[in-house]
Amino acid sequence: MQLEDDKRKELYRKMVTVRLLEKRVEQLVTAARIPCSGHFGLGQEAVGVGICGPLRYSDYIFGTHRGFAEYIGKGLTPREILSEYYGKATSLSRGRLGQHLLKPEIGIMPLPSSLGSEFGMAVGTALSTKLRGSDQVTVNLFGEGTAGQADFGPSLEMASLWQLPLVFVCNNNQYVELAHYRNVVATEDIAPRAGAYGIPYEIVDGNDIALVYGATAEAVSRARQGEGPMFLEFKTYRRCTHYTGDPGGYQPQEEIEIWVQKDPIDRCRATMMAEGMWTEADEQAMLASIADEIEAAVKFAEESPYPDPATIYEHIYA
Amino acid sequence: MQLEDDKRKELYRKMVTVRLLEKRVEQLVTAARIPCSGHFGLGQEAVGVGICGPLRYSDYIFGTHRGFAEYIGKGLTPREILSEYYGKATSLSRGRLGQHLLKPEIGIMPLPSSLGSEFGMAVGTALSTKLRGSDQVTVNLFGEGTAGQADFGPSLEMASLWQLPLVFVCNNNQYVELAHYRNVVATEDIAPRAGAYGIPYEIVDGNDIALVYGATAEAVSRARQGEGPMFLEFKTYRRCTHYTGDPGGYQPQEEIEIWVQKDPIDRCRATMMAEGMWTEADEQAMLASIADEIEAAVKFAEESPYPDPATIYEHIYA
Amino acid sequence: MNRRITFIQAVREAFQEEMRRDERVFVMGQDVQAGIFATTSKLVDEFGPARVINTPICESASVGAAVGAAMTGLRPVVQIMFGDFNYLAMEMTANQAGQWHYISDGALKVPMVIETPSGARGGAGYGHSQSLEAAFILPPGLKVAVPATPYDAKGLLKSAIRDDNPVLFFEHRRLLPQRGEVPEEEYLIPLGQADIKRVGSDVTLVAVSVTVHKALAAAEKLSQRGIEVEVIDPRTLVPLDKDTIFQSLQKTYHLVVVEEGRKRGGFGAELAAIAVEEWFDYLDAPVQRLGTISAALPYSPVLEAACIPSEEDIVQAVLRSLGQEE
Amino acid sequence: MNRRITFIQAVREAFQEEMRRDERVFVMGQDVQAGIFATTSKLVDEFGPARVINTPICESASVGAAVGAAMTGLRPVVQIMFGDFNYLAMEMTANQAGQWHYISDGALKVPMVIETPSGARGGAGYGHSQSLEAAFILPPGLKVAVPATPYDAKGLLKSAIRDDNPVLFFEHRRLLPQRGEVPEEEYLIPLGQADIKRVGSDVTLVAVSVTVHKALAAAEKLSQRGIEVEVIDPRTLVPLDKDTIFQSLQKTYHLVVVEEGRKRGGFGAELAAIAVEEWFDYLDAPVQRLGTISAALPYSPVLEAACIPSEEDIVQAVLRSLGQEE
Ligand SMILES: Cc1ncc(C[n+]2csc(CCOP(=O)(O)OP(=O)(O)O)c2C)c(N)n1
Ligand SMILES: Cc1ncc(C[n+]2csc(CCOP(=O)(O)OP(=O)(O)O)c2C)c(N)n1
Ligand SMILES: [Mg+2]
Ligand SMILES: [Mg+2]
């Protein structure tokens, strides 16, 4: 499916927001303003943002620990994110979630701390929509390393068996923590594993926002029409280290350089400019507006109070 | 690899032993002489017996809950089996194992009560032989339903990644408890799942002992020579009910009839007779000798004492 | 109320009533359509395969799917065929199902039930025989039901299905075929309400699940010796009805607790700890705990029986509690 | 003995010594080659990738593989990156690793270690912060080590690796960077031997893992008020050195137990139960149990701190035990 101009601009803005927000969060973690560590996705913004492009608020997404892209993509604001990361009383969870961002009202579903524990849950939300006769779609996004987790296969089995409205998205960024993925993943591609369960799959350039959007739009529309699950693998690359506590050094510089050339934001901007739909002035205005939004969010989070310790006794049971 | 005459006779005898022993155990369970329920594999004896054909005592096998065939195949005797099933003091485990037959000295490894918990263990025994520089091979046998279990994929991943001497054998008998396997398995074949992890596979007629033996012999010899894992799927059919407590009725009579025609024991006998290596006299002599062996085993188990309750405090820790 | 039905029938009635009442309720698990232990048999005829779902053999993903369905407005009951297999799904139950309501600050609810036949019944072997209910006391956010009679089973299961939290519902295999009185009329039993199964004045005997029946038999024997035991069935381990137990203790000053789960780290540990922490002045004697030994359960029925608490063990524990050991 | 090294270094030395000593020992886990929390860093340089194995992200199959390797003569140490993730492998640990030695009547041994960093450290969130050691008291056949100092960590890990049973080895994240004295010479600490971390006569305070340090700090404060607390570190929860605790109790007649794991169903429950069952005559006051509340651990450090026992909580518990609450 085609990426319309307005949508392209929206996704572009989101990608840039993600990049700037990640940078800012990195500073704040390093400065110990934010108590958790940060996991970033420099260079892979097109995946998380692009897959959310075709989604409605009512669709469910299970995102990742490196998930600024999908959370911004699905509609969380920097303010919502930062207040959670700061652990402040003004966050949606009043300081309970931290990096485990969640907002069910717009379809952002749990990010379990145990990688892969979302596989079963995503089957469950898709089964739920099917049983309820709703046309909501579930998107389950995960890394190529997480595809090694135990419930991966069973979730493919169930999705295929019950023809669930479930789109599997593997973000193959070529690293699993501190090692190249082939150190712990047996095959170059993950997607054919879905094929072996009878689920159609596609392997797509994850650094081209239009391709990410298009492939996802098609998979989502199939799922929405009751045609069952699909599996997408997006090839991309993590240009940053695993997390804020990781000094890095294990990614060859030349490898990084190659992927700098394929940067999804640069590519999107170049395309828009070539097509005459984006100017340098647009760019500057956008950057200023995003910077404002992020700084306002930081200020909000900084100035928000910490939660009252007495609240720990609330909501222990429903 | 070819099935030599002597080997064929040996495997034939084992298949018949399995069939007669299962029948006898069924009577004994029904008569409440044996306290556990019985899971039988009528019509699928060629798989368990055949895959053990090429194995040495030092090779490891993880068998199944429907596993008289592989246990007899690997060298357990009716007497050893029955004394365990009776829970008698004369059993190898002094009454502790029951149907969870085990004999590490001849490579019979744990049968976990939780289906699929052998996947990881089989990776472990194969990894162990590799680290120890031994040429032992591990064979992991499981049903097509068990292939749905969580650790199935991860064990394929590890076996492929580390190129382990591990032969996966899926006994596809087309039923998973009380339902046809396609009720809970998304695909007709299981084996291509291994292919998606980079493991070579083969789908073979599981009711032809020569084919079962040949395919396994090749996979085992590859593994033994350090050429890595292989996956075999044997197509067969469970002609009995799931277990002694299952009245059945869900398997179409015509379906059963078709598979009666393909009976592995009848086929093996017919081939041997056609080739002139087996006579009716041989058959009668063998049947009598097996019957003797089984009745002696029943008598032994019946007459053995129950274990002393005081032994429960032994071996709590190693 | 003189209709006597089996535990199985009582559970099935609970399913039927709740599934009729609320279309969000559905059942999933291995062979639930056929009903491997019969609690779900025939449900598929009335409610169809969309609400009585046979799952692949994967406990973790099945419980995971129930969690996802529960978070999005349905009320799944997932059957785990043997209690032992709950460890396969422990991550989904203990780390996920029980935790998201709290950390979402109430934004998510996880109304689901895990129905799980379990316990020793002679000859099922090490991994088909354990009583693991105590493993669910430590993790937060879960409730744990351990019915001992058809009446309790029906009333508790109905409440569990209506509860907005994940509830583990243990069905002891030896109880499944047993009969008991169950009224025709609808009723519910709140989670967290103990039941005094026998009134007594000398010793408070708290018994879990199948051991309630052993406790009652032991109490009869002891009664012949002039010892009147009060047998309390907590019916749920979480929430625990401490009031009922404490009231009894204020009368008896002696506490014995019995379960078929292992003694070390079991429910009895938690109850004895509560007693010595909160009811210290009402303990005239050491608390007696009975449970299975800390070993795998052996297969041979004669060995298994030696590992789990017997009626006679209970008699002896009560006598010990009273300082009358033989 | 005045060499001061970190807990991490102590653990790494244990690995080095045992891997040099016995070629059957190997390590596996996610990123153990790089050493995500540094306990295994550099081992690969000395022992090669065949003995320091990076695994795919699958805790269940990794523990499963360790079980299989252990049964066939090797001595694997499998690292589970966060204690919370042990629930993912619970089936392999609790139902398999701990049970086969017994049901095989000794034919199989399962000599393996699960090394697992864990515990709350402010801001790691619900599923990266739990102290779950108590979950391994109920299952049979396992041992559970909870070192609180570099010295104990090294000596216990070496014993765990040599032990013929599966041992869980918990490393509290807050302790990992802490320094302590560790001799150059080789030593072992037997599993099942408590350590009196501070001698006292008024109250017996049993503290687990990181809470040992809070207990010692609380004891200093109390000492200024004339209350002398004996701080006992059990060092292993299974086997539990009951003798040392009982000896202390015979002197103090007051028992307080603290852990960072949840109180409900925790180690304190088992210990308090043992006390009221076996040491009844030596309890002059209710046992005080401290542990985390039965809720998911919230992310915000201010909330997390409110959920777990603090030094001040310990002071208060000791005072309560002595009837001197404020
Ligand atoms: C069950 C579990 N095991 C281990 C971890 C620790 N961990 C966090 S991120 C990560 C790597 C994930 O790799 P991948 O799936 O490729 O995603 P990426 O980080 O590359 O986005 C690991 C192992 C975890 N969170 N959960
Ligand atoms: C973890 C687990 N879940 C469920 C069961 C109950 N169970 C025993 S046999 C069986 C069916 C197995 O089917 P399949 O793998 O096809 O083997 P078959 O019985 O056909 O030989 C099931 C579900 C079990 N033993 N373990
Ligand atoms: Mg990755
Ligand atoms: Mg089958």
What CATH first level of chain A would be assigned?
A: Alpha Beta
Poorly predicted runs of chain A are: none
Overall 3D shape of chain A: globular
- Overall shape of chain C: globular
Number of strands of chain A: 7
Beta-strand residue fraction of chain A: 5-15%
Output the structural class of chain C.
alpha/beta
Residues in helices of chain C, as a percent range: 25-40%
CATH superfamily of the largest domain in chain C: Thiamin diphosphate (ThDP)-binding fold, Pyr/PP domains
For the record, the CATH class of the largest domain in chain C is Alpha Beta
> In this structure, how is the largest beta sheet of chain C organized?
7 strands, mixed
How many structural domains of chain A? 1
Oligomer: heterotetramer
Which fold name fills CATH's third level, the topology of the largest domain in chain C?
Rossmann fold
DSSP E strands of chain C, number: 14
Average pLDDT value of chain C?
A: 97
Examine the secondary-structure arrangement and name the CATH architecture of chain A. 3-Layer(aba) Sandwich
* Main β sheet profile of chain A: 5 strands, parallel
Question: Structural class, judged by helices and strands of chain A?
Answer: alpha/beta
Residue windows where pLDDT falls under 50 for at least 5 positions of chain C: none
The H/E string of chain C reads EHEHEHEHHEEHEEEEHEEHEHEHH
